[in-house]
Amino acid sequence: MTRAEEFEDLRSLLFSIAYRILGSVSEAEDAVQETWLRYAASSTQPTSVKAFLSAVVTRVSIDVLRSARVRREEYVGPWFPEPLLTDPYEDPERSAELADSVSMAALLLLERLSPLERAVFVLREVFGFGFPEIASSVGRSEAACRQLAVRARRHMDEGRPRFEADRREREELAGRFFDAFRVGDVDGLAELLAADVTLVGDSGGKAPRVADEFLGLDNVTRVIGGLADLFVRVGGTVEAREMNGHPGGIFRDGEGKVLNTWTLDIYDGRIQAIRSVSNPDKLAHLGPVADTLALNRKAHLTKDLAIHLSGDRRSPGRGD
């Protein structure tokens, strides 16, 4: 087997490691490509290709994450991971760990960890690597890695919801939610939302927004109802899709270009959180991306949504 063939056999694993460390599809793909360049340039043949490449992609990802942390501190508004439609790596023996760790909620919890804690947690808790391999990957002793793993696990456990819905329940509830959204059934939407539901958007300052966050059943229901009306006006469609292992949707304009994505956190029989990603830089891997700023200038979307939320009865789209 050639080096290129060895690498391709492990590409999905390497991407999955990098994505969980970085929370970015594009940065994970770059980390995998850098790993290949280093492997191709290496003059030695490792005893375990899997261990070698996993260590390289981990080190590359840690370096990228350290520099990304600085940029994220200056990010405009809330920061979310790039939405992932399909995790390319499969391991039947670790399917639960893989599914849980790729959710938006889990990735946001991982953001609380230091880069080393995050890498150790991903390698140990998600992919089941031994501490000797982890120590080699992050350049720390086995004892230090065990301590990092304990701290990371504690932080992650503290932030997890206690009762999560099973997959079938999530999919059924999400289907009802998007059906209600398509027809603007505000009462139907409200029945599916938790009393303390949140709607949070990541635009990065590069897409229209009225506010970054809406809290509570009444506020979120009004926002979604207003968005449904505006969505119909621009001829949009919503495609229900699994996003980061959980129910979600891709919103497109009349030409089929991507406007944004939503992911739904569902437990206790209700939608607890809706996370919207509209930053075009985070959507390019999903297909052609709409120019939402231009669309907003043309159709006055945020202005009319603000009027809707204020209770003003003026006709949508009417200028002053």
Describe the structure in your own words.
- Helix 1 (3-22) packs parallel to helix 3 and helix 3 crosses helix 7 (131-138).
- This protein has 320 residues and is an alpha+beta fold.
- The protein has helices spanning 3-22, 25-41, 49-73, 95-101, 104-110, 115-126, 131-138, 142-159, 167-183, 186-190, 217-233, 292-299, 301-310; strands at 193-202, 213-215, 237-243, 246-252, 258-267, 270-277.
- Strand 5 and strand 6 (270-277) form a beta hairpin.
- It starts with a helix and ends in a 10-residue tail after the last helix.
- 53% of the residues lie in helices and 14% in strands.
- It has a 6-stranded mixed beta sheet, covered by helices on one side.
Gyration radius, rounded: 21 Å
Report mean pLDDT, rounded to a whole number: 91
Unreliable segments of 5+ consecutive residues: 312-320
Query: Span from first to last CA?
Result: 69 Å
Give the spatial strand order of the biggest sheet: 2-1-6-5-4-3
* Element pattern in H and E: HHHHHHHHHHEEHEEEEHH
Number of strands: 6
Structural class: alpha+beta
Strand content: 5-15%
Helix fraction? 40-55%
Domain RNA polymerase sigma factor 70 region 4 type: 105-156
Keywords: Sigma factor, Transcription, Transcription regulation
Family: Belongs to the sigma-70 factor family. ECF subfamily.
InterPro entries: ECF_Sigma-70_Domain, NTF2-like_dom_sf, RNA_pol_sigma-70_dom, RNA_pol_sigma-70_ECF, RNA_pol_sigma70_r2, RNA_pol_sigma70_r4_t2, RNA_pol_sigma_r2, RNA_pol_sigma_r3/r4-like
